[in-house]
Write a structure and sequence with these properties.
Blueprint: E1 3-8, H1 12-27, E2 31-32, E3 41-46, H2 53-67, E4 72-77, H3 78-82, H4 84-88, E5 95-97, H5 105-109, E6 119-121, E7 134-135, E8 142-146, E9 148-149, H6 160-164, E10 168-169, H7 172-183, E11 189-193, E12 202-203, E13 206-207, H8 211-218, E14 226-229, H9 239-247, E15 254-260, H10 264-270, H11 276-289, E16 294-301, H12 308-320, E17 325-330, H13 348-373, E18 377-387, E19 390-395, E20 400-404, E21 413-421, E22 427-429
Parallel strand pairs: 1-2, 1-3, 3-4, 4-5, 5-6, 8-11, 11-14, 15-16, 16-17, 20-22
Antiparallel strand pairs: 7-8, 9-10, 12-13, 18-19, 18-21, 19-20, 21-22
Helix pairs in contact: 7-8, 8-9, 9-11, 12-13
The protein binds iron/sulfur cluster.
Pfam families: Radical_SAM (PF04055), UPF0004 (PF00919)
InterPro entries: Elp3/MiaA/NifB-like_rSAM, Methylthiotransferase, Methylthiotransferase_CS, Methylthiotransferase_N, Methylthiotransferase_N_sf, MiaB-like_bact, rSAM, rSAM_horseshoe
Cofactor: [4Fe-4S] cluster
Length: 439
């Protein structure tokens, strides 16, 4: 029995895809092992958004060859699609597979016999038109369920459409099948995952369904306790979706909505499909219907043309907005994007100063959000996450909670009252409140 190990860089989508590919290997009789357990085959799933994707890829290959010098090393993922030739020159790599090939890996590489030449099987990205179903089952608590892939938007800074292709989706019926399978496992939380998830519903280039159809249908699946939407573009987060989530049995009051800039000048330069007024309106709508909702925001600093004044517009916009945390990205030039050709480049020093300012703002926002919720009662899903005698979990509105460790709590939903913020920034809960089991 050949042994295979996996390594994943990047986003939730990559994790769901690695997990599905690893199940394909197990079904074919391969033994899945940890990276350091002398595998015969390594599958490395790469990311193009990660800083220094090339260096990371080289490092992982080097480590793999140290562990198993005779192993067969295969590179897949976004970086493999963007730079197949470069990757094939990394010493130790045996095969590189693109977006249209990665789910046929076992069939295409057959017996994983080493050859003189590196196998490069990466079609043009236009060929990646099939939707491949995927979901992760790495831990018992939560799964990332891929429902959509690719993107038709073409924001000026983004390489994802080049690496993953056009927008395409699973059907509602097929997602429900996967959701029912998941519902029959111990997993309690499903995270709906995609590149541009609000654009769900395009099959073979034609829109057949809408994201809202999926949201309504999946809410009925028995056995799933919680459903989260990983991230959704503000212009696609409709009033209907927000209102449905507010009344839903299973959708949690947590939204992650990319803003990228609080300056309309920069939003236009980025080619985003909304202005700050729309974003503000979405936040207000969520907070009116769900005052306890957590709202996370992606923001990029240092995009070309972002002057001090325009950055301050972003800062002030975010400061005044009723949001709960930020994911701050420092802009960096990516080959083959429109932004990489733009003038008015922001010096690296300024980019990192702005990033620091927004990270501090994020911590303030998170603390304020946590403080507003102290004394209130929520349901926590405890995870297999134990440190210094404390077990951790998240409330439905994404507050990280710490409680005294009890093995019985792992993967359980418990009603708790939030007590105080501890030194690590988690919220401690009042233990006598463990009275209610939601099943
Ligand atoms: S919406 Fe824009 S940033 Fe998001 S994947 Fe599509 S092109 Fe990239």
């Amino acid at each position: 029995m050949k042994k295979v190990a996996f390594y994943t860089l990047g986003c939730k989508l990559n994790f769901s895809e690695t997990s599905t590919i690893s199940r394909q290997f197990e079904e074919k009789g391969f033994q899945k092992v940890a990276f350091e357990e002398n595998p015969d085959i390594f599958i490395i799933n790469t990311c193009s958004v990660t800083e220094n994707a090339d260096k990371k890829c080289k490092k992982i290959v080097k480590e793999a060859k140290k562990i198993s010098p005779n192993s067969y090393v295969t590179i897949i993922g976004c970086y493999a699609q963007l730079k197949p030739r470069e990757i094939s020159e990394i010493p130790g790599v045996d095969a590189v597979l693109g977006a249209a090939e990665k789910f046929r890996l076992i069939e295409l590489l057959d017996d994983f016999a080493k050859e003189q030449e590196v196998k490069v099987l990466a079609s043009e990205i236009q060929e990646a038109t099939d939707f491949n179903n995927a979901y992760s089952i790495n831990d018992r608590t939560r799964t990332f369920l891929k429902v959509q892939d690719g993107c038709n938007y073409g924001c000026a800074f983004c390489t994802i459409p080049l690496a993953r292709g056009k927008s395409r989706s699973n059907t509602v019926a097929s997602v429900l099948e996967s959701a029912k399978e998941i519902g029959n496992t111990e997993v309690k939380e499903v995270v709906l995952t995609g590149v541009n998830i609000g654009d769900f519903g395009i099959v073979e280039g034609k829109r057949n369904e809408r994201f809202e159809d999926l949201v309504r249908a999946i809410d009925e699946v028995e056995g799933i306790e919680r459903i989260r939407i990983s991230s959704i573009e503000p212009n696609l987060l409709t009033n209907e979706i927000i209102a449905f989530a507010a009344d839903s049995k299973r959708f949690v009051p947590h939204f992650h909505v990319p803003l990228q800039s609080g300056s309309n000048t920069i939003l236009r330069k980025m080619g985003r499909r909304y202005l700050r007024e729309l974003y503000e309106d979405r936040v207000n709508k969520i907070k009116t219907l769900m005052p306890q909702a957590c709202i996370g925001v992606d923001v990029i600093v240092g995009f070309p043309g972002e002057t001090d004044e325009l950055f301050l517009e972003t800062y002030q916009f975010l400061n005044e907005l009723d949001i709960s945390y930020l994911h701050v990205f420092t802009y960096s030039e990516r080959a083959n994007t429109r932004a990489a050709e733009m003038n008015e480049v922001v010096p690296m020093k300024k980019r990192s100063e702005r990033s620091k300012m927004l990270r501090i703002l994020s911590e303030k926002k998170r603390r304020k959000f946590y403080e507003e919720n102290l004394g209130k009662t929520f349901t926590v899903l405890f995870e297999d996450d134990v440190q210094d005698g404390k077990i951790h979990g998240f409330t439905e509105n994404y507050i990280r909670v710490a409680a005294k460790y009890d093995p019985m709590l792992v993967n359980e939903l418990k009603l708790v009252t939030l007590d105080q913020i501890d030194d690590q920034g988690n919220v401690e809960v009042r233990e006598p409140e463990f009275v209610y089991e939601k099943h």
